[in-house]
Design brief:
4 helices
């Protein structure tokens, strides 16, 4: 029997664009480290698995996945921001979680050939 995955949340986080119109990755990393903690999140620059939320209006967002309990902490920490950066969140389905594991493996390949999330690598 396969192990049960820890519940994950996918957050739509609005981003700051640099002068070239690209996502400012350094700023995004600093924001996520502040609200969620270092090594507690994983992001892509494209909405690969779910459509961008309609609630994002005109803001550019990226998907960020993290454990459910960390997501709650991040959402609460973001409540004091004006405007709030986390515009939408949803619990990932098992299929989406497997796809996020694939992304994790692409970010940090390992000899076992299994994707490990940053919080699994650094908290182990």
């Amino acid at each position: 029997m396969a192990p049960v995955e820890q519940p994950l949340r996918c957050l739509a986080v609005s981003v700051v664009l640099d002068e070239a119109g690209e996502v400012d990755g350094i700023e995004l990393e600093a924001f996520l480290n502040h609200v969620a903690g270092r090594h507690q999140w994983l992001s892509t620059t494209e909405w690969l698995f779910v459509e961008p939320p309609a609630e994002a209006e005109e803001r550019v967002t990226v998907p960020v996945v993290m454990p459910d309990e960390i997501a709650v902490r991040a959402i609460l920490a973001d409540l004091t921001n004006d405007p709030q950066r986390i515009v939408f969140d949803l619990l990932t389905t098992p299929a989406e979680t497997r796809k996020w594991r694939w992304v994790a493996f692409q970010v940090a390949p390992n000899a076992q050939g299994q994707g490990r999330f940053p919080w699994e690598r650094f908290n182990a």
